[in-house]
Amino acid sequence: MDSGRRAAVCPRLRGVKRKIVAVLATALLGLSGCATGAVYRGLGGSTSHPQPSPVGPSPTQTSDAPSGLQKFYDQEADWSECGKFECAEVEVPLNYEEPDAATIKIFMKRRPASGAKLGSLFLNPGGPGGSGADMLASLDAYLSQEIQDAYDVIGFDPRGVGKSSPVKCLDDAELGRLMDASYSGTPEEQQAAREKDLKILTDGCQKRSGEILPFVGTEQAARDMDVMRAVVGDPLLNYLGFSYGTFLGAQYRELFPENTGRMILDGAVDSSLGAARMSAEQSDGFEVELRRFVEYCQSRENCPLEGSVDDGLTQIRAWIDEAKENPFEGKGDRKVNDSILINGLITTMYDDTYWNYTISAFREMKDHRDANLFLTLSDLTNGRNSDGSFENNMFEANIAINCADYPAATQEEIDAAIDHTKGNTVLGTTFTESDTCKFWPASPDTVPGLFTGKGGAPVVVVGTKYDPATPLAWAESMADALDSAVLVTYEGDGHTAYSRGGKCVQEPLDNYLLTGEVPRDGLTCPKV
């Protein structure tokens, strides 16, 4: 589907960066006139080695289980070897209001601490729909060795995701068709075709996953985290959440402030926004980052975007329009239409270290009508393999979780979002033309709102000045709302900052996880 919330609410790349880097590096070898530059900044070496200090009370002082849930809190995890890691499942209620009824299992993957252990550190890469378990495969890209020495690092698949009772809606062929769909005709004809596909998707989800759909929301997932905390024997939950993972972490702190330990929320989501406004603000964020990309491109040799910055943005839009009418060449018999091109392009806006490759990809489009790199990136972020199969259910889980958390946008809200974004040169109204949840069977009546987490331990919120997917204003809103929160700002580009923002960002956050010393509120770090 070429528009709507699915296109906009996809801040999920923390979990697939390692694959993107490999794809870009390989693809670059086959491109003519390639730009050169660093692919991946990485963590760099830490020069400080703070002395780790315990998190909270001793493990014997665990919190009491909520009423009716004692058997879930008392279970023991049966960890078994799974490759380089240890894996286990924890049983939780399908519906926490009926704990004696149906149950599901949540999949966890653990890398044990390699030094003196402080406790566990739970991870969520974002999405929604991202697999925390899969995130462990590229752990060095996220956490310094000091943190890995001090914590059992646990990635888990939230309910509805990956190996935790995954949401399934369509077969691979139909899912691929919907992902790549481009709509033509009059505006009314395009909207009718778009809504027909939304109905196909919704009906498929209801048919294949109807039992779990009402219970895959973030509140239920946060309750699962408290069960996991108790099962691994930790008195407090230590947590690192990126993007959507900040919403999950803030929801946990709202429900269990007394059980919250050290928590970093990087790339914050403003959960008080409705679906339409959220999509509009993300569209603005990507438009700003695209402008910065064009400025960067035009400062380099061999930039295919000529003239002024506005001229460059107009050229990108012209290619998108061309792809709609006359798709570019992809791989094999696949063509690159406007939907695929936009998805691949916005992928490269998540990290400015990708921009040299974006320049090369546009050069190939301009000189040879070859857009295969954008096709490859679009497939990669959607978890689509070369044979058309899917390696994960991120697309379906993303929609199911969003629709469980947010009510469908009203037509008035959609119209306002369209009016807000129609002046965006490159993306226009792509993110705001419809709402994926329009036909959803089990959406709430109100938006979640911002959380306060009264009485919880200090939490660190991190925002990036030019983050396209989660604008800095969202981090500021979350930090203002959360009790005892501090805000760290990275004045750089791309999505999220921890491990991307240099020592100024990394060292105080590492020190916080290791010692509990909270970074200075308002700390601002320059772009690296």
Could you characterize what this model shows?
This protein is of the alpha/beta class and 528 residues long. It has two domains: 230 residues, Rossmann fold (3-Layer(aba) Sandwich), CATH 3.40.50; 217 residues, no CATH class. It contains 18 helices and twelve strands. β1 and β2 form a beta hairpin. α10 packs parallel to α16 and α11 crosses α12. The two termini are 36 Å apart.
CATH class of the largest domain: Alpha Beta
Number of domain units: 2
Number of strands: 12
Residue ranges: pLDDT <50 for 5 or more in a row? 2-12, 28-50, 57-62
Strand content: 5-15%
Write down the Rg: 22 Å
Which architecture of the largest domain per CATH?
Answer: 3-Layer(aba) Sandwich
The major β-sheet equals: 10 strands, mixed
According to CATH, what is the topology of the largest domain? Rossmann fold
Secondary-structure-based class equals alpha/beta
- Please estimate the helix content: 25-40%
CATH superfamily of the largest domain: Alpha/Beta hydrolase fold, catalytic domain
Number of helices: 18
* Secondary-structure element pattern, one letter each: HHHEEEEHHEHHHEHEHHEEHHHHHEHEHE
Distance between the termini: 36 Å
Strand arrangement across the biggest beta sheet: 1-2-3-5-4-6-7-10-11-12
Shape: globular
Mean pLDDT: 91
